[in-house]
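Contributing new complexes? Match this layout with iron/sulfur cluster.
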Amino acid sequence: MTKICQHPFKTIQIQNTGEVYCCCCYWTDFYSFGNIFDSSFEEIWNGQKAQDFRRQFIDNNFSFCKTDVCDPAFEDITPTLTVPFPKRIEFSYDRHCNVRCIFCRTQSDNQEELHNRLKEKRIEDNFDSIFTPVIQHAELVELNSAGELFASKHSIDIVKKIIKINPNIQFRIISNGILFSKKNTQALDLENRLNSAIISIHSASKNTYDKLVKNGNFNAVIDNVRYLANLKNLGKLQTLQLNFVVTALNYKDMKNFVKFAKDINAKAFFINYHRQIDSDSLQSLLDISLPSHPKYNELVEILSDPIFNDDEHCVVNDYLKNLKPSNPSLFQRLKHLFKK
Ligand SMILES: C[S@@+](CC[C@H](N)C(=O)[O-])C[C@H]1O[C@@H](n2cnc3c(N)ncnc32)[C@H](O)[C@@H]1O
Ligand code: SF4
Ligand code: SF4
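Output block (do not edit by hand):
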């Protein structure tokens, strides 16, 4: 057996279109295994497209995986073309949210939200018949990488339903943290079922946070993260990850963010900003990982700090790790200035 990414062998991710992926659709350029409204779940999970995807792991030739931006889950497994029911389900179709992060929800979203709502409704209406057998076999459910679990009545209802179907299930929750409080966690009976909590904060100060997260609540997030850190210290939570999407508005907080993660025994996770499809001028301004951005070299300089080598408390995705100075001589001058 070798350590390989377990997602294609164990994970399904459901999008609001009904498409089934094995991890984040951006990491595989929307390589779908099939659609739950066109085929049965069994046909999708071991169908031709799924098998072609898994073959990459046998041939060691990764043409479908964007390994520089993805977050693989490595495990010792022997790759096979067909596999039993997935162990991990990621529900990623409910876009309800209580805030608007400027890099996630763009101006033109209102119209799109209406379309999304109709698509979500179709999944909601068919949820039991499609997912009950899959949930019965699963060990871990992830919610909600499309919106905010704690702000959505539908996602909250799903959590209750899942626990009823499979009381031994564990949860991996990705959240903006505002409503991820002790009270809400206990009300959902999640405290003893939490495997991982991934909280997206993107800043080490209220000032920076407020520029990025509209209608957010930085103090509530920090209180809730401290509650989760306590659960981790008590051995009730395996992973506490703090997400940080790197943009031109928050890159100066990166080092303090690692210090905060270290203080509470969590892991800071730095992700490059992905442009949305309807690119506009705000996006060009935010996208500091483009060599043409005026602050690009400052970001590269910051990333060269040894604080980012602390593997226990920090992960920088390969895309960011591999950024090179756009003009090396300028970079050396900057480095020199920073050292003074
Ligand atoms: C869409 S959110 C949904 C879960 C939850 N609401 C949250 O914020 O964590 C899932 C993850 O995608 C990240 N994200 C959103 N927009 C992004 C973008 N344009 N580029 C990179 N990551 C993004 C968020 O920061 C978060 O970590
Ligand atoms: S290697 Fe990356 S892109 Fe490929 S399946 Fe794993 S997480 Fe997804
Ligand atoms: S909280 Fe999550 S889903 Fe909501 S706007 Fe921010 S990144 Fe997007």
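Reviewers usually confirm one structural detail per submission. For this one: The longest strand covers residues 239-246.
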